[in-house]
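Anyone up for a design puzzle?
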């Protein structure tokens, strides 16, 4: 959520969509583990949207906002069916959180090569500041 807010301060995407998606993007992990004995991204993307939709139904949000949040959740690992500004903010924020868990941040050439995965200039700049 912190990185999403930082990136969105520059990107000016819809703040409600960004913040809800940032909070809920990994909501499918536990159900994926229960159903598939795996928290792999494809299972998170499959299981997360129905859970998020149920949670978001408690609030008076426009259907298009709920649909957009759920599309972000359904693609936050694969990025196959979406390329909105809100999605790009979440994509970059998620990478910023996950890089230290998945890569050796002391490998500066590797960190430099990872900059190409970022979809916003603000996300790329944060990655450079933190990892390069």
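Challenge accepted. My sequence:
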């Amino acid at each position: 959520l912190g990185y999403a807010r930082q990136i969105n301060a520059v990107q000016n995407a819809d703040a409600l969509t960004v913040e809800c998606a940032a909070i809920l993007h990994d909501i499918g992990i536990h159900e994926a583990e229960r159903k598939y004995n795996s928290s792999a991204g494809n299972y998170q993307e499959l299981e997360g949207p129905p859970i998020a939709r149920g949670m978001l139904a408690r609030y008076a949000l426009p259907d298009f906002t709920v649909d957009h949040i759920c599309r972000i959740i359904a693609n936050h690992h694969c990025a196959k069916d979406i390329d909105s500004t809100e999605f790009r903010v979440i994509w970059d924020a998620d990478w910023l959180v996950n890089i230290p868990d998945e890569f050796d941040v002391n490998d500066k050439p590797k960190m430099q090569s990872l900059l190409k995965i970022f979809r916003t200039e603000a996300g790329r700049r944060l990655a450079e500041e933190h990892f390069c």
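A detail worth pointing out: DSSP finds eight helices and no strands in the chain.
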